[in-house]
# Entry
Amino acid sequence: MSRYWSDVVHRLTPYVPGEQPRIEGLVKLNTNECPYGPSEAVLAAMAAQTGEALRLYPDPQSSALREAIAAHHGLKPAQVFVGNGSDEVLAHAFLALLKHEAPLLHPDISYSFYPVYAKLYGIQTRELPLAEDFGIRVDDYLAIAREGGAGGIIFPNPNAPTGMVLPRAEIRRLLEGVPDAPVVIDEAYVDFGGESAAALIDHYPQLLVTRTLSKSRALAGLRVGYALGDPALIEALIRVKDSFNSYPLDRVAVAGAVASMQDEAWFAATCARIVATRERLGAALADRGFQVLPSAANFVFARHPGHAGAALAAALREHKVLVRQFPRPTRIADFLRISVGTEAQTDVLLAALDRVLAAA
Ligand code: PMP
# Structure
């Protein structure tokens, strides 16, 4: 292959998602899906769109959903952008907002999709190591930005796969010090105990907050995500979307997502249930000798001092329990990222772990 084509192929290195195997009886704790089904109100609203209504194109602006999301956050619809999952929203944000003359800063341990988008769109990146305790060091970002070295900043909060939270006061400090580069806070997991930056939107025009309905609203299969930001940033995202002539969401997805944003009772109860199981899981892992990072997400990140991460993940798989292990960076290779399942799935996981640890 010529150098040109090998460069093209390199630029298009895809993201490697968590496995979605079809193995019967598998306890699937590897992709942070919600272990409970969506609310009845969501299912009914979607069913109502699957008959005669399908004849009609959806609203290209998804206005009903933007209004429902705005109402939920106490913002205006002009501050809301919607897309097919937050991955698509992030893709548009990379294309529309990030600068090209300086690198995009992100933690060395964070969502592995960011470098994929950056490569695709020809955006340079600079990875900043997390602190010893796996926290994000705002001062590192501020120092680089002061020298004009930040074309943008992105990280998940809570971070993935650590689950750890950066307090809102620290995000505010970051925004104060980086006034003229986009700062994207990916809040895919914020509903499980993080501190949202959504309340800062009105004060910082460089801030974009992304969210998903995949985790806390049990709609990973529907593909709905959104961004909150200054109307100018949102308009830029809409222009990118329109340049692809793409409808952001279909009728069924809009109906389900609107119903979900309005079903506060289901949402609150489901988040509380998952948080309670997460606390039980974290304590049970600690009892078994694991180091467990403090999680505000719907997963825990934990390592056992006596076991290599890859071997432990493989042994659990033998017991039909699937968890995620990241070989790189090597600093986290011995950690397992375990999604919070139902109480019954947690029982199965812990029983499997006991057998694996006893056998070793
Ligand atoms: N951000 C982070 C940090 C994630 O872990 C995920 C889920 N893999 C996403 C965004 C994307 O979620 P979705 O596209 O399902 O909205």
